[in-house]
Amino acid sequence: MEEKELTPQESMALIQSMIGKARKRYSDNSFFFLLWGWIVLVASVGHYYLSTFTDFKYPFIGWSLTIVGAVVSGVVGARRDKRSQVKNYTDKMYGWLWASLGVAMFTIVFNGQLINWNTVPFILLLAGVGTAVSGAMMGFKPLQFGALVFWVLAFIAFRMPENYQMLLQAFGVAIGYLVPGYIMKANFRKHGV
Length: 193
Known about the structure:
The chain is mainly α. It contains seven helices and no strands.
């Protein structure tokens, strides 16, 4: 049986179809951006409020929400992985990107006392990397803009007291995770893409 060669138009249509399928796989990742956006926003604002306006001894208590976020992300990610009919190299790279950044962020926070708890600028830088790469992989400009916001805020955060860094971080996730996450979710529901 002879294979028919594709015309240039058919080749382009096939490539666009494959890109569309890849984007669809990532477009429903809004769950993770929304989950982490809300966790970091609540923890950051809570930390700022408790350390600025109260005498509470443990203003960082809200960050315990990240443990819940890690468990929920792991369970949801594993379930989606099981349901996925096709796993490709790009899917694995996306997962490894965020897992690696998570380990890096945990390492920075766990060793925060060694840098006088000045962790936020480093977290913002890493969040910018993950967001930029995710936006590029999805061809999704709101995430790429969010990455730029993270990087600008990281630059500013190095020059701010810790309390105000928390507000910068809250603003960063609102623009870098939540806004793109809700846009992504709306696009997925509206177009199935």
